[in-house]
Amino acid sequence: MAKRRNHLSGWTRASCLVAVLVLLPVLGIASQAALPSNGLWSHLAATVLPITFVNTLILLAGVAAVSGIVGTMLAWLVTAYDFRGRALLEWVVLLPLAVPSYIIAYAYLDILHPLGAFQGAIRWMFGYSSPREFRLPDIRSMPGCIFLLGFVLYPYVYLPTRAMFVTQSANLIEAARTLGVTQRAVLWKVALPLARPAIAVGISLALMETLNDIGASEFLGIRTLTVSIYSTWVTRSDLPGASQIALLLLFLVVLLVSLERWARRKQRYSTGTQRFNPAAPRRVHGWRSPALFALGILPALIGFAIPGLYLAVEAFKRWNFTGISDRLAVEALNTLSFASIATVLAVVLGVVIAYAGRLRPGALTGWTYRLSTMGYAAPGTVIAIGSLIVLASFDRIVDQTAQRWFGYSTGLLLMGSGAALIYVYVVRFLAISAGSIDAGLSRIPLSLDHASRTLGKTANQTFMNVHLPLSKTALATGALLVFVDCVKELPATLLLRPLNFETFATHLYGEAARGTYEEASLVALAIVAVGILPVAMLSRVGRKAADQHQKIMGHAASS
To answer: Whole-prediction pTM value?
Structure first.
């Protein structure tokens, strides 16, 4: 028994250590923000912060409205109606998840350029000869940024809302229809009130992604708090000022999470499993069927198909003209190697967190799980600034110690080697691997644990022989999601990459900042191709859910 307790306490101690490592960037920001900023903070507070703070709030409100409306309406469309092409639409609407927001902005800046082919075709159709006579509203604006981010992030609302609509009992829907309520009124009076918790969760996720964005906002000329953190540190070299803005942004994230929980504080809904009967979609005939399909596919066209086609055409032109540069091979190696290392570490630490909670559930492991997964809620810029403070201090201490005792300078041990960037990737996306592994472990009956212990197996042996083989799918899912997010991550990579180190994301950012859009089309297309992997996985899960739904309906009909 003593040996078993030691193993259990070992997993718990390891999970506590992981929580401390995740907390270090936040502590670093708090300590640095308390330092004076050589008079720059008063300048920032008077000139920069009021504008950026208002811009951030306007952007959040706009993205919440667009993503909430589009995601909710799409979820209702594919759940409540049965029309030709509905099965295709169920997974096509997820494709914008594959495209990072900065790639969408990068693509549409060229597509909607006043001298581009699209606006040129419109002028030709209406008989105009130059942009001076007619041009579309500039995409470099707050409405343009809200529009593009909303049509990229709506799947965050669509996924939980559709899951809520699918699990709503048909008894409530049919009771409303029996009372003469129209399909539109069923949505507003029955379905939407029951789905408010899912809508709140989806909108909060979309807003967190908005706060994390730096490329799209900067490309489209919108000064947000995230952009200000980057410019304050890179342009003004004011680390305390950047830390103070980062602390303000972190407070905004906490406020968003609190508002999301407050919005669904009294929302509790459940149905008895024995009487549960999913609502059957209403069959649509005639011209309404293609009209609903066209309406449903429009967001996917805006958020994926149009920019994806543009990138494919530009990438082909670039490849046909100059071929593939040797620099792209180096950038591919940098991107894939760093993402792979971070993925392995995130999965290993995720196993530690999730398994410690399974072995000894309680307040301690519950808090270590929450603290270890808080990095995903914080924007990448905030985590990067905090990590920069902590790891630079560590490098300085190690260097001074080495010089004092051995007469040798270690230099930037972590910051210069790329270890800092990997550390930020792990802290940022540890929540994904931990959540996936925890969900996989929760499906394994505790009776298997008890049987293994009865046979004299330790906690480690039980994990290797029982839990690990049964959790391979969850491990692979978490690893895939972490890997893709590491490849797409831009803010942290911009701030913490070593000198002369480029990834696909930073290459695209640099070319877009210079206005040479065609140069980065190949890497943008590569990022989108990698991003399609988790979307394909989600669509596969959706198909399994649909098959299960059909089995339930068939069983209900036969009984």
So the answer is: 0.80
